[in-house]
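Please predict the structure of the following assembly.
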Amino acid sequence: MSLAETIAAPEVPPRAQDALTVEGLTKTFGDRRVLEGLDLVVQPGEFVCIVGPSGAGKTTLLRCLSGLMPPTSGTVSYGDTRVNRPLAEIAVVFQDYRGSLMPWMRVWDNVAFPLQSRGMPKAERRARALRALESVGLADVADQYPWQLSGGMQQRVAIARALAYDAPILLMDEPFGSVDAQTRFELEDLILRLRAELGLTIALVTHDIDEAVYLSDRVVVVAGRPTRVIDDVAIDLGSAREQIATKATPRFGQLRSRVMREIIDPRYRGSQEERND
Amino acid sequence: MTDAHAPVTASARIGRVVTLLWLPVVLLIAVFWLTAGSTNIYFPPATTVVSTIVDGFADGELGAALGYSMTNFALGFFIAGIVGIAGGLFLGERPAIRGAFEPMLNFVRALPFVALVPIFIIALGISAAPKIALIALGCLWPVLLNTTDGVRAISPSILETSRSYRVGSALRLRRVTLMGALPQIFAGLRVALSVGIVMVVVSEMYGSTEGIGYYILFSAQRFAIAETWAGTFVLAAVGYLLNVVFVWIEHLTLGWYERRAPRVRGTRTARSAQKVLA
């Protein structure tokens, strides 16, 4: 995988039929309000990055989006379906890849495991897992255990699992937060390529502004105490991206500065004590 | 990876056997040498004990005693394993119920089960049933408590992943919860193995007419010291063999766990074993 590779525009129509819609999402833990009145729409085929400072409740937001956690008030819906439990149309890639892969299952089995619940026979599960592993470039380690692989490879296994699940929507929680910079760039391009090839709709949560601007069609900036949506930035960098050239354009710099200014804006920052809890 | 699959040369294998066996061999020779021609009534010559063991098996007495005891042991251990693992999975997955059970579990854990032998025999008679019940009861707690701990130690991200990928509860129990707790379940079963052997002997020392424990006790009462030693050594040998078989099964089942980085596996088993023995 070369770094200076241009990832072209989506080649296939989006597989998602409907938008993922968040309306007035509020989440409270005890007497601490984490999210307040968030509105957000992810259109079919869109790549949206939700970016905000550490501790802004981004993971909470993603857990609400995936149906793993019920909102205190407000709704999350996919088309007409309320997302109040995990849906078959939504696959999640977690930040903690080490914890989300099961060490007692071989790589292919980890990828295929969610399909077992659907009663798919083993041979078919394995074939699907191998296809998904091939698309992330890991077909040759299918019979190894996840703990024999590097961090970046483990995260690619987690991505393959999401692909094998065959959901039109992919939610990602800081997926590249714990890998080294070069692996990070490779994984970013991998996701862009998969999205183009498979027509995925993606919502990705990150604290990394460069990553958010580079990957997405739209950046939603969240910040404050409690967290609100403070900006929604269309990323007009064209649909083809390339790690070095795209990031060197003046427009990239402008967008990046705009998002960064909002995130460090003192009006949206709580006191230091609050931020550290 | 590379070490485990490297071909082992014949000389390396012999070297390993020597490293493992030199001390037992030396001790065994020492025992035979020191007791040779002994006239001390309590420490008969080792050769006498060996011939007593051979004779005991030849006339069927020792074999019958051992068979009776091991049948009780197998049944008790099996019951404890099934109930302990099932109960531990249940309690591990339900924090609310576990909280209600916790004080009782801690009380029972502190109870010396040997103290229950008389009341069991009085209440249930001198048949095999109360003995099996005692063995099962002794073996149950290490399995139950370790399984519960094992389930609780499963990473929350693993459970969250199963939930977000809509893994059904039966499948999750079998392939996630059970497998995740398995290293600690084995640690519990291993403790249960030695507790079980103790319970076998103790249960036969009170109100019994059969079994290896009875054989040892009855021989001692008749001052048949060679027989007493013979029974003791047979019991020790059986306990050792059971442990070897157990380790072998554990190795086959937990290959994935043992081959991981040592820092990950060492701490967890050691901690749980300590907890039960404490």
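The radius of gyration of chain A is 18 Å. The first helix of chain A runs from residue 58 to 65.
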